[in-house]
Amino acid sequence: MNLHEYQGKEILSSFGVRVQRGTVADTPEKAVEVAKQLTEETGTGWHVIKAQIHAGGRGKGGGVKLAKNLDEVKSISNDILGMMLITPQTPAEGKLVNQVLIAEDVYYPGDSEPNEFYMSVLLNRGTGRNMIMYSTEGGMDIEAVAEETPHLIFTEEIDPATGLLPFQARKIAFNLGLSGAALKEMVKFVTALYTAYVKSDSSLFEINPVLKTSDDKILAVDAKVTLDENALYRHKDYAAMRDLREENPIEVEAKAAGLNYVDLDGNVGCMVNGAGLAMGTMDLIKQAGGDPANFLDVGGTADAQRVETAFGIILKDPNVKAILVNIFGGIVRCDRVAQGVVDAYKNMGDKINVPIICRLQGTNAKEAKELIDNSGMEIISATEFQEAADKVQEVLSA
């Protein structure tokens, strides 16, 4: 589950990580109120206005600007709120900005070359260990840094049995070229950051940039946080941070219906039971010349209501030109699934306006095929995996 910057900073701050302070606002008037309060608390006269969307590169798209007085706070907030912000990480049409973060200006006057670092905490799936990735080249596209100057990217893996050890935090600070008070502050920062990552059950913390001020303070100026959804039952307060406006509405609807659905860019809708079979189905569609429009795992039950819901969700995608139903009847009987498909087809009527290819294998597969073939519905049955993929290609080419 992705979080907004201000939400990520709230989590970081709760574990003792120093962050750039700020408050979110959803109107220009609220932005001015927030800026006034921030000035009273911090003494800052300038404020940074940051669009809050689930995407990076906001500054490049005009979503991060500096306001030097309250009039600019209001005018800039008015410009950013409601805009469709386009960045390298958004869809082509951009993302609607519903709120902005009004943050303190942490770059001191006279700091012509502030020290900015990159730091992230994530799982190295190759080794099964958490890893801190960091660089002296903060404030830049880390992908470009890794490609053009890979020697400036450092990593530190953490043994899960011991956690982050003091010498590792010091090593990170040394590699960033710090000494004295700044080194001590960075050690504290890294230690608190790793603690926050582990105890919040996150899958990614990315801070770009981490700033060293001229008086040797170390703080997170930005925060990209992704939480592990499988652990949200332990963090009810974090689960409440979910912003459904930032998520694909079809995926949100599917999740509410208990379906595992991921929207893709192809033209063949997939309805499958089991993640492994779903992945195999998508691969075979691709090999047959089609493109999967989605990943959809209906799970172990496939009654008429569940199948009808799945059809409805798949058909919300206007790019879908055919639907492949590929069910293995292990726990669930194929004839029951077939009946569910037939009943759903009857109930939806003319809502189903694309060809449906149905392959059912496993328990009572023979009875299932007969049921579909004798239903009078325009459903194309298949027996073998490759046969189903070939039929998909036939209807796409017709």
From TrEMBL:
<keyword id="KW-0067">ATP-binding</keyword>
<comment type="similarity">
    <text>Belongs to the succinate/malate CoA ligase beta subunit family.</text>
</comment>
<feature type="binding site">
    <location>
        <position position="273"/>
    </location>
    <ligand>
        <name>substrate</name>
    </ligand>
</feature>
<keyword id="KW-0547">Nucleotide-binding</keyword>
<feature type="domain" description="ATP-grasp fold succinyl-CoA synthetase-type">
    <location>
        <begin position="2"/>
        <end position="210"/>
    </location>
</feature>
<feature type="binding site">
    <location>
        <position position="106"/>
    </location>
    <ligand>
        <name>ATP</name>
    </ligand>
</feature>
<keyword id="KW-0816">Tricarboxylic acid cycle</keyword>
<dbReference type="InterPro" id="IPR013815">
    <property type="entry name" value="ATP_grasp_subdomain_1"/>
</dbReference>
<feature type="binding site">
    <location>
        <position position="222"/>
    </location>
    <ligand>
        <name>Mg(2+)</name>
    </ligand>
</feature>
<feature type="binding site">
    <location>
        <begin position="57"/>
        <end position="59"/>
    </location>
    <ligand>
        <name>ATP</name>
    </ligand>
</feature>
<dbReference type="InterPro" id="IPR017866">
    <property type="entry name" value="Succ-CoA_synthase_bsu_CS"/>
</dbReference>
<keyword id="KW-0436">Ligase</keyword>
<comment type="subunit">
    <text>Heterotetramer of two alpha and two beta subunits.</text>
</comment>
<comment type="pathway">
    <text>Carbohydrate metabolism; tricarboxylic acid cycle; succinate from succinyl-CoA (ligase route): step 1/1.</text>
</comment>
<dbReference type="InterPro" id="IPR005811">
    <property type="entry name" value="SUCC_ACL_C"/>
</dbReference>
<feature type="domain" description="ATP-citrate synthase/succinyl-CoA ligase C-terminal">
    <location>
        <begin position="271"/>
        <end position="392"/>
    </location>
</feature>
<protein>
    <recommendedName>
        <fullName>Succinate--CoA ligase [ADP-forming] subunit beta</fullName>
        <ecNumber>6.2.1.5</ecNumber>
    </recommendedName>
</protein>
<feature type="binding site">
    <location>
        <position position="50"/>
    </location>
    <ligand>
        <name>ATP</name>
    </ligand>
</feature>
<feature type="binding site">
    <location>
        <position position="208"/>
    </location>
    <ligand>
        <name>Mg(2+)</name>
    </ligand>
</feature>
<dbReference type="GO" id="GO:0004775">
    <property type="term" value="F:succinate-CoA ligase (ADP-forming) activity"/>
</dbReference>
<dbReference type="Pfam" id="PF00549">
    <property type="entry name" value="Ligase_CoA"/>
</dbReference>
<feature type="binding site">
    <location>
        <begin position="330"/>
        <end position="332"/>
    </location>
    <ligand>
        <name>substrate</name>
    </ligand>
</feature>
<feature type="binding site">
    <location>
        <position position="116"/>
    </location>
    <ligand>
        <name>ATP</name>
    </ligand>
</feature>
<dbReference type="InterPro" id="IPR013650">
    <property type="entry name" value="ATP-grasp_succ-CoA_synth-type"/>
</dbReference>
<keyword id="KW-0460">Magnesium</keyword>
<dbReference type="Pfam" id="PF08442">
    <property type="entry name" value="ATP-grasp_2"/>
</dbReference>
<keyword id="KW-0479">Metal-binding</keyword>
<comment type="function">
    <text>Succinyl-CoA synthetase functions in the citric acid cycle (TCA), coupling the hydrolysis of succinyl-CoA to the synthesis of either ATP or GTP and thus represents the only step of substrate-level phosphorylation in the TCA. The beta subunit provides nucleotide specificity of the enzyme and binds the substrate succinate, while the binding sites for coenzyme A and phosphate are found in the alpha subunit.</text>
</comment>
<dbReference type="InterPro" id="IPR005809">
    <property type="entry name" value="Succ_CoA_ligase-like_bsu"/>
</dbReference>
<dbReference type="InterPro" id="IPR016102">
    <property type="entry name" value="Succinyl-CoA_synth-like"/>
</dbReference>
